Amino acid sequence: MPVLPRLRAAWNGFFFTGFTGDSLAALRLALGLLLILFHVIQFETLLRLDPSGAAFVYLDPMWHFAWLGFERLYPAVCYAVFALLVAASLATAFGVATRTAIATSILCVFYLKGARDSITGDVHHRYFLPIHILFLLLLSRSGEVFSLGRRLRGAAESRIEAWQASWPIRAMQVYIATFYLWSALAKLRVSGWTWIEGGGRIQATLIKRSVMWGIDDGGQVAANSIAYALAQYPGVCMALGLAVLAMELGFPLILLIRDTRWRLAFLGAVTTFHIANFALIYVLFIAIPISFLVFFDLGGVTRWLRARGAPSPTVAPSAPG
Question: Model pTM greater than 0.85?
């Protein structure tokens, strides 16, 4: 068999098979609900503001805020936008005006992230995965299966072909895999091996974050003494750095792992990495593993819920083409 037909068959076999409409609907339901937790973690600092408090001027607004002319933060507006974000996430989960709800979620995130980052003076990248996942969900037909909105309108579920359900999920998987790969390549490009040599960046970050709350009268760090103690062992820090690089460079291999147990083990290790990052150096990627749901077929969840709920509606045939 010639090379090009083989490549085409492999491409089509990966992107357009493996999932059903139930898989896509269950992923929409799970992400819609769990991303509410993600939003709370990311924007809780804005929710500490007094909603009736005075507005204040951004000293260094984000580029899109500067472009739109947003110069002041209004606490009440942040609360209103966050409430809209939660409502849109719930609507996404239950398939009510799904595409409108997803688009609303994205716009709310852009506003709240702009408000938060314009205050901190730093650009955070924690929404890269959720936003791109939501965008791919927006382009999909996820709202046509297991949809409360369609049921309320008396409309039947649409028949989602395997290729229509599979390509958005596969695209999400590829994006996540390349996100970690490019993270490793960026480290090597910017810092080279000095990032890990002799403890490198990891040791410096552990020290910086462990003393950020000060040192008490006894000469002990006021918080995170574990991180400070770990920083005293350059060899351990170097080993951790090598492990991080190996994980990020090897992340795309998850696309080739068929066994669910091995996939769970690998993603469990990555989740442990994010938890340790949060515990030791306060990196708020702790909720990123929510996005790992895209690596599993959740169609059984939809079928289980349908079997215990209202009778399954008649499936209408999809439009030709």
Answer: yes
